[in-house]
Prior knowledge:
The structure is a single chain. This protein is mostly beta strands. Helices cover about 5% and strands about 50% of the residues. The chain has two helices and 36 strands. A seven-stranded mixed beta sheet has the order 6-7-8-33-32-31-30, with no helix packed on it. The radius of gyration is 23 Å and the shape is globular. It holds the Pfam family WD40.
Amino acid sequence: MAKVQTLAYVDIQHDAPAVFDDVEQGVVLREDFWVSGYKSGTTSVHGKVRVEAADGGGVDIEPRDGVRIERLSKSNFVISVPSLGINSLSVRFPRQVINPPYTKKTNVSPELHISSIDYSDKSEQLVIGGTDGYCVVVSPSDTKNVVELKGHVGDVQHVQWFPSGEVVLTASSDLSVRVFSSKTGANPRTLKGHTRAVTATAILGVGRQVLSASKDGTVRLWTVGEAKEAKKWRVDAGRAVDGLVVVGDEAGLQALDVIAEDEQVILAATPDGSISAFTLSSSSLTVPIFVSPPPVPSNLIAIAYSPSTGLIATGHANGITAIRHLSALRPVEEGHEAPLPTLIKRNEAPIYSLAFVDRDGRLDLLVGTGSGLPSRLALDIDANGTITASTKEEYAGWEAVSVESWAVGADSVFCAGGEGGVRRY
C-alpha cells in the first residue's frame, strides 16, 4: 500500500462564537473555550482561550497551553499550534445555519437526519433529503418559503438538481427514483424496478435520461419521459453499488482508454472499494470493460470526480481518502506496476462525504467524516502528477456527528448530516 500522508488538524468548541457574544454583551466578564490540535503519532495539544471584557469596550483574547488564535471576524479565525506544525490555519464557523421544518410522523419516529443535499446556482435553492421520506426545497435567502416533495416512504438517500434548476431527482430506500417539480412539489414521474435501496443517481445531459445505482447490485438507465427502464448493468454477484460517477469529458474518456464519439463511462463503486466501468452504449447486462481493485483494504463509502483534472477520490471506513487519476483505474499491462494512489488521513473517523471544488485554477477537496470535523483540503499537483494535500480550512460549529453530504455553490459550500441542519460556509 502507498504511504499515507498524515495531516494535522484543529478542533474548536462548537459554540465558541457564543462565548464572544456573551462577553461583548456583558452577560459575563470573562469566559474560556477550548481549542485542540491533533496529528496521528504525535501528542495532542489541548489549549484554552480566555475571552475577557476589555477596558473601553471590545474583548481581549488570551490563548494558552500551546495554541494561538486570531479573530478575523465573528465567524472566521486563524489558529496555530506550533508543536504540531499547524501555522495560521483558517477556521470558519458557518455564516448561516438552515434548519428545515421537520415534524415527526409518530412519537417513535427518528429525529431528522439529512442524507443528501444539492444546490442549484440557477434557482439559488437547496434540495434536502433525509429521514423517513423527508424531502424539501428551500432558498437560503428565504428559509420560511419551503416546498415539500412528498412521495417517498423510505429514507431519501440522494437528491440532485436537473440543469434547469426547476426539477429535482431523488432516490430512496423505498426502492424508487422520483422526479419532482421544485416549484409545486408535483411528482410527475416515478421510476420503479430496483429490488433494494437506491443509493445514487446521475443526470445525463439536460435530463431526458438518468441513471440510478442500488444495493441490488445494478445501475439502471431510465428514459424519464416514459418512466421506463432502458438498460441495466450488474456488478459482481452479491455486491451493492454505493456510489456512481459518469465520465463524459474527452480527456476523461481518453484516460480510461475509451475512444468513441458521444460515449460516456459509468463508474460503479462497491463497498469493498472496487470500481466497475461500463460504457453507456453497451447492451443490458454487458460485463464491465474493467474492474479496478480497491486502493486500500477498507470499505468504500464516498466517491467524487473532478473532470478538470481527471482525478477521482474515494473515502473509506478507516479514515483514508484515496486519490487517483482516472488512468490508474485501468488494468495494468503484464510486467508493469499499477500507479500508487495518493492516500490522505487526518484521523480514524470514516469518510462519509467528498466533493471537489475547482476554482481559479486551484483544486480543493471537501471532506466530511463520521465524527464531524468537516474540512477543505488543498491539492497541489506537480509536473510529475504527484499530489500533495494540505488542510486549507476547518469548518467548525459541529458536534461529533456525521457530515454526510456537500453542495457547492458559486460563492458558498454547504454541508449537512446527522445534526439535521444545513451549514453554509
